[in-house]
Amino acid sequence: MIKAISYYWRLFATGLCFAVFGLGAVFFGMVVFPIMRIVPGSPGAHRRRVRATFRVYMRSFVGLMSAVGVLSYAFDGAERLGRPGQIILANHPSLIDVVFLIGFTPQTTCIVKEALFHNPITRWPVSAAGYVSNTSTHSMVERASQALQDGENVIVFPEGTRTTPGQPMQFHRGAASIAVRAAAVVTPVFIRCVPTTLAKCMRWYQIPDRRVRISFQVGRDIDLAPFRQTPVPIGSRAFNTHLLKVFADELKVPAGNPTAGGDVFETETGTEAGAFRTGDNAGRFN
Amino acid sequence: MLSSEQILELLRSSFTELFEIDPARVVPAARLGEDLEIDSIDAVDLIERVRRVIGRKVSPEDFRSVRTVGDLVTAIERLQKG
User: How many domains is chain B built from?
Assistant: First the structure.
């Protein structure tokens, strides 16, 4: 009986959280951020204000999910996030990882999947916050590297998409390449989510039979020096392998084989029909 | 202005240095993706290298229809003509 009440309450609360999230994103994107744009200041100052506001919203949303009992969480080492030129690399078990990471990281630049720039709910906040799209590998690598060189911090999920439960972990090399190219500091964040919730193959109403426990552990910085002795393509391959091992060891999951990064010369408008492999989404990020 | 032979030679040394690919495999008919295992992330470095060699700005658009090493040579020739 109590179990059933708990289940239906959490189902209701989960739906409530989704609704609040969607309405909040639209409200911020269409009302708050446009109003903030009128406030005088340089584009940089404007973007910093948007990011600060967005962070408060994400942090409040974490508070909401916790308060209504959808999940409980721990965030260990948040004070080490948000340093200049820092690339923050995290595994991606669930849809809500990014909410926590943005909520706990000051002034972050996120690499998000292109679709979020077209989604009616998310398009306004992601563009106002100046996040980097994964449209083409070339512009993604260049823009994320530029952000790091400008002293911003960047969040990337090297898996490129949410973890597929039960599959060996795989990292696309884009994140490693950006790190070797431009990062001042590399910091891993290990995310554990038990039981699995809002994973890649799950719908919002497929909630687990008990409250979700999600924990974030900010790991020790990874030294890039050994991977900068060679040109970036070679260094980033070695770094990617190392990175995957760090995560697989810490999370006690099997590591998969490195994967290739998609079409050779892909462009913003896509490659010409037949010129290259198509339908290969490797190397993309969300 | 580099001749096509010089461009190919330059590509050979770049491929060796950047990707540790045996120069003997860098022939005009070699396909970049399938034969040489160059992916889109490598292409970022390759384009940077080309930019430096020919001394003018290039974009991924300039390489849209490039499939093989030979196509790449042709594309670079076209680019240096301006």
Answer: 1
- All domains of chain A, ordered by start, with CATH? 2-251 (3.40.1130)
Q: Which residue has the tokens 């942090």?
A: A59
Q: Spell out the per-residue pLDDT of chain A, length 286, in tens.
A: 778 888 888 899 898 988 998 898 888 888 888 888 888 888 888 889 989 998 999 999 999 999 988 899 999 999 999 999 999 999 999 889 999 999 999 999 999 888 889 988 888 888 888 899 988 888 899 999 999 999 999 999 999 888 888 888 889 889 999 999 999 999 999 999 988 877 776 777 788 888 889 999 999 999 999 999 999 999 999 999 999 999 999 998 888 876 655 566 654 443 332 222 223 333 333 3
Question: Which residues in A have their CB inside 8 Å of a CB on B?
Answer: 136-138, 141-142, 173-174, 177, 231-234, 236, 260-268, 271-272, 275-277, 282-283
Contacts of A233 in chain B (CB under 8 A): 18-19, 41-42, 45
Terminal-to-terminal C-alpha distance of chain A: 40
Query: In angstroms, what separates the C-alpha of A144 from chain B's closest C-alpha?
Result: 13
Please tell me whether the interface predicted TM-score (ipTM) of this complex is above 0.85. no
Q: Are A25 and A127 in contact (CB under 8 A)?
A: no
What is the C-alpha to C-alpha distance for residues A149 and A182, in angstroms, rounded to an integer? 6
Which domain, by its residues, includes B19?
Answer: 4-81
The CATH code of the domain that includes B62 is: 1.10.1200.10
Neighbours of A90 (CB within 10 A): 24
User: What is the residue whose two structure tokens read 């020096």?
Assistant: A225
pTM: 0.85
